[in-house]
Amino acid sequence: MTDLTRVTAAALAELLSTREVSSVEATRAHLDRIEAVDTDLHAFLHIDSDGALKRASEIDQLRADGHEVGPLAGVPVAVKDVLCTIGMPSTAGSKILEGWMPPYDATVVARMRSANLVLLGKTNMDEFAMGSSTEYSAYGPTRNPWDRERTPGGSGGGSAAAVGAFEAPFALGSDTGGSIRQPAAFTGTVGVKPTYGGVSRYGAIALASSLDQVGPVSRTVLDAALLHDVIGGHDPHDATSLTDFWPSFAAAAREGAEAPSLKGVRIGVIKELGGDGFQKGVNDRFTEALALAEAAGAEIVEVSAPHFEYGIAAYYLILPAEASSNLAKFDSVRFGLRVTPEGGGTVEQVMSATREAGFGPEVKRRVILGTYALSAGYYDAYYGSAQKVRTLIQRDFAAAFDRVDVLVSPSAPTTAFTFGEKTDDPLSMYLNDITTIPANLAGIPGMSLPMGLAAEDGLPTGLQIMAPAREDVRLYRIGAAFEALFAQQWGGSLLDQLPTMAGMGAERATVGAPAPAPASVLPVHGAPEPGFGTEPDGGTR
Amino acid sequence: MATAHGSAELMDFDEVFETYEPVLGFEVHVELSTKTKMFSAAPNEFGSAPNTNIAPVDLGLPGSLPTVNETAVRYSISLGLALGCQIAKSSRFARKNYFYPDLGKNYQISQFDEPIAFEGSVEVELEDGTTVTVPIERAHMEEDAGKLTHMGGSTGRIQGAEYSLVDYNRAGVPLVEIVTKPIYGAEKRAPEIAKAYVATIRDIVRSLGISEARMERGNLRCDANVSLRPRSKAGEEPAPLGTRTETKNVNSLRSVERAVRYEIQRQAAILAKGGTITQETRHWHEDTGTTSAGRPKSDADDYRYFPEPDLLPVVPSAELINELRAALPESPAIFRRRLQADYGFTDSEFRDILNANILVEMEETVKAGASPAQARKWWLGEILRIANAQGVEPGTLVTPFNVSELIALVESGQLTDRLARQVLEGVVAGEGSPDEVVKARGLAVVSDDTALIAAIDTALESQPDVLAKIRDGKVQAAGAVIGAVMKAMKGQADAARVRELVLERSSKL
To answer: Where does the record place the Amidase domain (chain A) (predicted)?
Structure first.
């Protein structure tokens, strides 16, 4: 029988709709997988086994009773802990919110519940999404399923690792400066940051309001599109939510994959996002990806974005400024941690002691930075200038999109780095987001999809595709075409090359999939592994 | 510290002006009477049980987001137009950051560099009929904070309290803050101008129907800025502005007048002795008629304002502004002149109404059906008497609609004036509408002739000599019988009807 954790969400939805498998079976398979690997991986902060199985059984019953349950009914999903969920703690990876049970669902969570998805649990993240490695989670880091000595990226390392390690078919993340896309690149998964305003932020614990965007994490472009279709669209509870009509992203992904062609597509390569300072294996895979696109009919155009070099500096003023204000609510008065100094204290002293104890080092660093940047007398020089840079970067994008349909770059300058490699040097951690930050500053959509393994370390690299604001549909069509072209070239999905995980040998033996060799001896791409092709391949069968 | 207020030295008021010139400035907060809050769907209601009118955003719960109340924006634009302001083509909300437990988010959503309305002026009419123009700098939208109650101390203030309770019902209630420019040349009329300005704002917001504007409930709150500067001689450059104090939350018209007067006298005494004024907020103490030091306030207070990223700019269309402009009621000054003409009151009759602050109540009472003369009689008579006795504004005691109902009951003969005063007492005590009080207290005039006739017959039979006189045509003798009947009816009878019936029965018995 098929291992239900290895199939895509689209394929699983198909199996469920034909009642070949039940949601309870699919949910149990994922919970078993989580139980087997997550002690080691730590992708989840909270696993709601009972709630998930109960909901799965209800959905099975609804289907048995002939109710219209929706195309994704019964498919399990994981949720980044930044999102508010009724019945599950929502901590944003922080001690200050340990055990906090929100009285409401984030809009995206409510929409997933209405679509009859089964919520497995909450995934790990850097505290309040501040970080690029998940090492700043107050609850301990998540390991990268490709190499457990390495980080899965961040802040959404939990969602990316969970999806990459087959603990969930797909998941929700949030992306303020790359927190969906960079972990996707590090774990060989797909991650999409939608157009700002395309997905509701209501119930997403805010980091930087003008940059935050919720989006899907998955193993295929189609799965990301299916989830995006569920969570996207106008929400009256979010004043920055766009009122646009959005076409079906899943239809676009299917169209892109059907006859993978990039004929006539003008693809812009941003000169400033690549080359020197990027890992050789990343640059090599990117060059190959461009050659592949050209061979498929695309026109490759080099474009320049002269103001991108100020992107990180601007980002690290705007983000801390907004975050310092957004995080002011964590004061012990109404919810969350309360630390009273010995012998009692005034409300100010209790607030201070609580924030001292409840926030981790990176959060404190950014709150202090942001408070400073907004101070009278400094506002114009810091926050004001950063907003001007933001405008210049938007103009760079506008000029580039006058010439091309999409822009591409490596999703991150390196492959996954090791634990502790960057925590002593915050700036080097910040620089890892150089490729992803511009899209957030400009509000445009961006996708990362697997681009192959870097030769020198055998770790995944990611291809970032960016489209003009409101043109998310273009990402799905072109992303799916790229994905299909890569699959043709590699003879399968990159995740098929995921190394065996500790304790998984016996289980893997039953699934009929090829037992992958260690990454170091795998061909980066080339001939399919023996036996490849026996698995469902992304729901297009 | 809430110590020793009332001990400040004061300079004689008239003496102040020999040396100093006061400069005034006001910040008036108006709570808008929208159905829901500024940024959430929670009800905007006064007097509910604590922490029941709340939504996640009012508590600053993680993940919650504000959305703008469109009615509040319309009200704010109307108010801006009524203040003669320009309306911003694009107006932005901003976050004012400071930690205080009455603010769930630890920032207040307000407006900073792009207020909805700016550059206006208001004509303020003083008691003698002269008019003063008060320049308006801006009117901006913001949200109210929650209400703190400090427990365990003796003063009710935070100092000395053991703990504090927070009620977030008020958190997020829509406010418009109206900020004047410095008001020069007020001179000895400064206290009077202060009172008249706040009264004018109150009349404007009431005429717009955008706020209850009840100062005792905090619907309208005034912070009064006062500074003194040395009087300059003719031909000299005016001296630079002196250091100001901001007396917070002065919550009645009379208090505004007193607080400004007090600050002028207090500051003058300090300056005359060579002292300096501390830039600070001051608390007004209604009981002692004094102010005391609050917190130091400097221009360098750093609220780290920045544009609110959770909200889009408010961009009112020209159509909307035109629509609201066309719907503006007449200005209070024009309104006053028109009412006086409509009601046919003399200047002195009308002045009494203005001085008692019952103009709006008068108008609404007349609109509800009462005659101007009757409305004036009740508001200036019994209602004002109770108000003065209780030390409150007449308009807070009873609604104009209830007054008109009361008048109607008198005019239809269902109540005598004497009974009506008892009914009014019940309405003021919160026993319900006049009809309800009449029923509950059983105060209606006995209009059932059978009961009256029975009482009359008894009275006539017991006074045969009077009956004989009446039959002889000595009608004035009926008074004794009428008195006896009224007494028997415990006053709940219409004397005129009793008289009619007495004469009628006399001829029949």
So the answer is: 25-475
